[in-house]
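Pilot study result, target chain (160 residues):
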Amino acid sequence: MKTRTVPLIAVLAVFGCSFFSFFQHPVLAEQQKVFRATLTELGGDSGRKCGEAVFTLAENGDVFEYVLRVQDLADITMAHLHFGTAGDIGSPVVWLYPDSPPPRKVPGSFSGVLAEGSFSAADLIGPMRDRSLEMLIEHIRKGHVYVNIHTAQHLSLIHI
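Predicted structure:
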């Protein structure tokens, strides 16, 4: 069986850790239910693995369950799925940590499960508000969605 990689943009070098790519589950793209990504640090320690995320679509396609694990990140304030393409600073489309505003600082260095839970189309915000999970998945496959983990050092640069 052939595994296909779908690019996911990592563009926010100053904001800590972002998805580098989604690796598809070894099934046909149209049937894909599990999206995995390795988080790599951008900027200062560029390329250092700093986490992993797994998004699993429920059988009925109405809910995504997710687990976001990080490794040695300092002063995390929030994490989102963002909508954007290469070179863009995209808008948040789903809160991952905390599960809704306001941001909540994890002081000091942290390793482990930062966030786990689920979200549905009703939880989509910004440019994906009132859209379907199917449309979110379509944008993931096109490389228009990434995860950004924000840190206290760079919080002031984020516009939500």
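One observation from the pilot: The two ends are 41 Å apart (CA to CA). A full batch analysis is planned for the follow-on phase.
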